[in-house]
Amino acid sequence: MSSPEYSHHFSVQNLPFGIASSRTRPSPQCATRLHNTVVFLAELHEHGIFNSIADLPTGIFKSPTLNTFAALPRSTHTSVRHALQQALQKGLATLPAGSTADITEVEMHLPVSIPAYTDFCCSKEHNLNAGRAILGRETLPPCFYHIPIAYNGRASTICVSGTPVQRPRGHFVDKTITTHKEVVYAPSRALDYELELGIVIGNPVPVGQRLKAREAEEAGHVFGLVLLNDWSARDIQGLEMIPLGPLNGKNFATTISPWIVTLDALAPFRSPGPEPQRESVPPYLQDSGDYAYDVQLRVELEHTANKSVLGETNANELYWSLGQMCAHLTSTGCGLQTGEVLGTGTVSGAAEGEYGSLLEVTKGGTVAKKLGDGTERRFLEDGDVVTLTGWAGDGVGFGECRGQILAAEEEGWR
Amino acid sequence: MSSPEYSHHFSVQNLPFGIASSRTRPSPQCATRLHNTVVFLAELHEHGIFNSIADLPTGIFKSPTLNTFAALPRSTHTSVRHALQQALQKGLATLPAGSTADITEVEMHLPVSIPAYTDFCCSKEHNLNAGRAILGRETLPPCFYHIPIAYNGRASTICVSGTPVQRPRGHFVDKTITTHKEVVYAPSRALDYELELGIVIGNPVPVGQRLKAREAEEAGHVFGLVLLNDWSARDIQGLEMIPLGPLNGKNFATTISPWIVTLDALAPFRSPGPEPQRESVPPYLQDSGDYAYDVQLRVELEHTANKSVLGETNANELYWSLGQMCAHLTSTGCGLQTGEVLGTGTVSGAAEGEYGSLLEVTKGGTVAKKLGDGTERRFLEDGDVVTLTGWAGDGVGFGECRGQILAAEEEGWR
């Protein structure tokens, strides 16, 4: 069941969308959250709260995913949000009987069915930090200033916050052997998290059509944002990714937070990006104004009931905007499907304490990080709980994105 | 409408599955092909031809994709094939009236809805040839002998043979400038094909379950094979793929042949792989016996009505088996979904004339290839038609996988 800890992230200024079920309402369905109260939208719809919104199909909020709703125009999302704000400002007691539940009584599910997942790598500082940790020198990918780089991830293993993550088994170079290079097949010894935001696509872009960066948000293609932990087995990834990029080192799990925070809720927190873009970009990639979002992000590691903050950073570090990511991905005609997820890549700052991955914190596992309980980490251990949180300002946050590491499966599966 | 050219690929020993429509039957539905006759399966089903098969749901062949059928156990696919062979050996005239159409009267569609696409790189010779062309030296990826390497592709742009392919626009280093390195945004100048086979997944593997290589075929996880052209913009790919692998250089289109040839049809053409596996592999990757398939593959380029064969090779060149690809992909728990496609990677031999991509034929565009009409190619030009064909032996082939290059879109889209 869900945690009551982040009540203050969910004021009437937020009203994110998610999919919840409860003992009395076993079918997962669309909901919003006000502080620690989950409000089921189907009941509100039936009671006429959205009557002024013409194009809202009957029964849309009974769906077990938000895809149908997310695909509607942005103006409809805005209208639903306004209607909800009006209804909720009258007080929870005025809502239809039985339309609410306490957050501790519900189970949250994946908010959307996810047809595709692409993970970008938009933080310049993360690239520089990772280059120092892996290669021993400051380096950026050759196209970093030209395009937002990315790889296609595996959509089938995106899971919702709270789902345990099993340590994957794979091939990697055994670093305990110092005399020669030997590839072993074993449980990963370099399991890591990545602190990211995820874009959830709303209004789809048909195959063959292309977006301009400036239009992506306006036209409702970005339904909203979630926290995203792109779990990474650094050793498996390290061996497999030359030259085709990561596969099994990332395929095993990606965790997202359950509540999709809309761009309407985040609008007051727009901010300029970290620096003027260095290279001139073609028209499709041009974005302007305050196209970053001031979202404070934090990653914590919990072990033996002791929590240590491992990194705190801000999404306005990202060199490329949400619109630029969407535009670049569609620029060769592959379209965007409702519910697909675009990760921003690990968000990191330049300084110690601002790193979004253990790879950065421990310099590739070479420098142990001391936790609050006195133990040390180079990479994640079985039983560790990693929690991402994020908040834009008073009353508008993402709650948490949490996962516990389980021991690798015994060999001899199936 | 479809080509009558490959009649000899479709004997009663083949009987592949596809999705066809016609003027009189406008809803795409399940079909098989005997020489140049397309046989619609729903009619046969209604007329009791599959009555002895207990677990075949009513109406299954009216579906606009083969996914529901592909997900059934391999024994059901085998039974349907046998029933079809018996019915067709009595002669086409004995089939229900109106259940057939000439191949030239039908339109073929994507045979399955494709939830994911992963492209492997299993040909050792392709890796060596590409290394020579790009880096000027023979080199294999560091993990080549340990695991079948792969990247996640974009499922949304997989299209069926005959669909035109628009030249993508993207970022790349302008090689016409010799004094310095300059990145431009322009239509690709290095458009290429890749001659591959594609595995179509049948019986799914749930997330969290893992396959062993030896079980993948037996247990019906491989529904069948298609020809696959993994169109590649080498210049866009070259800039973007360090370090995360290809994205937009591949995302714009992947073409597959319309008829899924089953492993039952290919069983007589099993063959040993190219060499004993060099490295010992863990149990999940162990495969044994004749686990390759003797499928002859050819790529032709058509220009001004003149066809030139650019390469001819054989799928038994592949170092890793179908089962090994499936097992490796699922080994960290990401499962397999019915209809998802696994590409083998470009199939190439060692010798001139056995190359599966222009990159290899023209040594990275440095050596022009003379075509039959006297023109030269370094990479594909607008209007070029690329056709892949493949055949396993008398009467069992794949037909064609064909696409014509269209000029890049004008800038100023949308």
From TrEMBL, chains A, B:
Biological process (GO), any one: homogentisate catabolic process
UniProtKB keywords: Calcium, Hydrolase, Magnesium, Metal-binding, Phenylalanine catabolism, Tyrosine catabolism
Alphabetized GO MF terms: fumarylacetoacetase activity; metal ion binding
Record: residues binding Ca(2+): D119, E194, E196, D230
Entry cofactors: Mg(2+); Ca(2+)
Domain Fumarylacetoacetase N-terminal, residue spans: 13-111
Reaction equation(s) it catalyzes: 4-fumarylacetoacetate + H2O = acetoacetate + fumarate + H(+)
Similarity field: Belongs to the FAH family.
Ligand binding (Mg(2+)): D230, K250, T254
Sequence positions that bind substrate: Q237, T346
Coiled-coil region list: none
Enzyme class of the recorded protein, top EC level: hydrolase
Listed EC numbers: 3.7.1.2
Highest taxon in the source lineage: Eukaryota
Listed pathway(s): Amino-acid degradation; L-phenylalanine degradation; acetoacetate and fumarate from L-phenylalanine: step 6/6
Fumarylacetoacetase-like C-terminal domain location: 117-405
Protein name (database record): Fumarylacetoacetase
Active site: H126 (proton acceptor)
Family annotation (SUPFAM superfamilies): FAH, Fumarylacetoacetate hydrolase, FAH, N-terminal domain
